[in-house]
Automatic annotation (TrEMBL):
It comes from the Bacteria. Pfam families: Cytochrom_C. GO terms for molecular function: electron transfer activity; heme binding; metal ion binding. This is Cytochrome c553. InterPro entries: Cyt_c-like_dom, Cyt_c-like_dom_sf, Cytochrome_c_Oxidase_Subunit.
Length: 243
């Protein structure tokens, strides 16, 4: 396995190689005419196509530099775990980044290399074929039990209706699986949604978490990351620990 330093250098080199025009800018939640998850454009084309996981494996190679070949992402929250996520959510987020509706200057140069809607469907299909990694980033503070308990209370009151009793999300409604996602990634995304920086956010969610304090976001992220992501888990390596 490459060392973290070599991986970073490889990523930087790839970013330079794919450098080009900046991402387009499409009006998001900051605009008065914004409609969340509008059923139009490349996203709808991709959703209507049958994904080919074998072809998607080749397309995913460019994604694996950051999200890892396993789709596990990185526990420091820089890149989310993709394995186990709904295909509808994967396609929506890739399409939003390509269209300039979700700002992600790190991912955009790579996402734009996917040729068309069919390749988006293929990559999503391949990611869906991956087993779910056993380990992921969780809250590690000494007060973890307290934070998780407080987060569970908040989650069951205001998040369960959309994201499900166990964080399983809803494929048909484009609500992501949040169970088992990296704690630091969850915290960063919810903070950005609350603060209006995630421009493709669902306005209904913004209304719910707008009043949340930083401490409450820590607690709810700690709880969500403590849950097990639904689906086919990877087998533990011999001598390794099981979750």
């Amino acid at each position: 396995m490459k060392s973290p330093t070599l991986l970073v250098l490889a990523l930087l080199s790839a970013t330079v190689a794919f450098a080009g025009p900046p991402a387009p800018k499409k009006e998001g939640i900051e605009g008065k005419d914004y409609k969340w998850n509008a059923q139009e454009g490349e996203k709808i084309e991709a959703l209507q196509k049958k994904g080919d996981p074998k072809a998607g494996k080749e397309g995913y190679e460019i994604c694996g530099a950051c999200h890892l070949p396993s789709g596990a992402g990185r526990t420091d929250g820089t890149f989310p775990q993709l394995a186990g996520q709904h295909s509808t959510v994967l396609i929506k987020q890739m399409a939003d980044i390509r269209a300039g509706l979700r700002d992600n200057p790190t991912m955009y140069p790579f996402a734009k290399e996917l040729t068309d809607a069919q390749e988006l469907a293929n990559v999503a299909s391949y990611i869906n074929s991956l087993c779910i990694p056993i380990d992921h980033g969780q809250y590690e503070g000494a007060d973890a039990a307290k934070q998780i308990a407080m987060g569970k209370d908040l989650y069951e009151k205001q998040c369960k209706e959309c994201h499900g009793a166990t964080g399983e999300g809803n494929k048909e409604k484009f609500y992501p699986v949040i169970a088992g996602q990296h704690y630091k990634y969850l915290l960063r995304q919810m903070t950005e949604i609350r603060d209006g920086k995630r421009r493709n956010a669902n306005p209904d969610m913004v209304k719910i978490i707008k009043p949340y304090t930083n401490d409450q976001l820590v607690a709810i992220s700690a709880y969500q990351s403590s849950l097990s992501m639904p689906g086919s888990m990877c087998k533990a390596k011999a001598g390794g620990k099981k979750k």
